[in-house]
Amino acid sequence: MDFIENIREGLRSIAGNRLRTILTSLIIAIGITSLVGILTAIDGIQSSVDSSFAGLGANTFTIAARQEVSRISGRVRQQDQPVDYHQAIAFKRRFPYGATIAISTVVTSSAQPKYGSRKMNPNALVVGGDEAYLNVKGYTLQNGRNLTSNDLNYSLNVAIIGSEVANTLFEKKINPINQSIRVSGAQYKVIGVLERKGGLSDGNEDRIILIPLDNARALAGTRKLTFDITASAPDLSSQDIAVGEARGVMRQIRRDPLGQPDSFEIQRADDLLKETQEITGYLRVGGFGIGFITLLGASIALLNIMLVSVTERTREIGIRKSLGATPKRIREQFLIEAIVICLLGGLGGVILGLSIGNLISMLISGGEGGFVVPWAWMGLGIVVCVAVGLFAGIYPAVRASKLDPIEALRYE
């Protein structure tokens, strides 16, 4: 019996035991689904994070006061003096490097904007900013216009609202532009609506209400605000020089003594991206470990089923041996059966894992993540299936090939 005929015989045997084949393939499919699904979800989440940072631009950096909070007690462990308005303005004027600089401050993250009788939940983010804020932060206007120097110089009561604020207050029935809304007791005319940002921002960026800086200071009253400075370097290659220059200028403005650490923090967008990539790398290792353990359990189950199959087909093996089948051909048949069953389960597991993984990543990223097809993980899944088939099929195949034909024919 040649090798091709052996393959046909193995396939006929699989087709003749459809229920066992389906159940066995399901065991493998579940293992592959866990492996490919977890890794696909991680890749999808990473893709969404990359898209979020791409909006900011890799050449941006932010200067802000540090405020590290203990995760255990919730208490502030290290706190710098806030960057005040005058320091932020001084930095923008004195920074000599050719960068686009935006100054902003968060007034509140729990505002409740109103339009007529309609109102939002008290979770809107009111931000004071300047004309460079939208560009540096990666926002795109869907409708209307940006803040202008006239709005800032005269502290006009104008606002740019996020997509969620617009949809909630105006319900897609009224054009928000030039309509008046009330925020924290003050009335603002809407001059722009932002496109939906979504992603991993937990919705805050779509619930934003951007107002001029001086309006934000007035809205805060006697409460002391802290200001953030976000700069976009001319290009990525000059970012290191720009960050070094910004540190020197800010130390002068903040009057940090020589030899003492900075009283502020500079966060680079590419550094944050590297940190997220490092975290997802650890998640991939963990996901691979979980999938491998699941597949190990599936391979043991397949090994058990193949051993039962050898026992059930003892007389068949005896007949084939009496007709001249060699131990090598017997081994080949059982190995082929195990590998084919694994491949059937593997293909089903890859499809399920691809679907489930992308569904999870889209739910986590708020529907902003694209459909990810991780060819490497899919290929790995198929290779693992073949390896599992070999692992689970070798021992039963060897055992079947060593059966004595006379004893096998006597088996009931």
TrEMBL record:
GO molecular function: transmembrane transporter activity
ABC3 transporter permease C-terminal domain: residues covered: 290-405
Membrane topology recorded in Swiss-Prot or TrEMBL: Multi-pass membrane protein
TM spans (from-to): 21-42, 285-310, 334-356, 376-398
Tagged with keyword Protein biosynthesis: no
Main location: membrane
InterPro entries: ABC3_permease_C, MacB_PCD, Macrolide_Exporter_MacB
Keywords on record: Cell membrane, Membrane, Transmembrane, Transmembrane helix
Source species, domain of life: Bacteria
Any one cellular-component term (Gene Ontology): plasma membrane
Subcellular location: Cell membrane
Pfam families for the chain: FtsX (PF02687), MacB_PCD (PF12704)
Segments forming domain MacB-like periplasmic core: 21-240
Coiled-coil stretches noted in the UniProt entry, renumbered to this chain: none
Annotated family: Belongs to the ABC-4 integral membrane protein family.
Name of the protein this chain belongs to: Macrolide export ATP-binding/permease protein macB
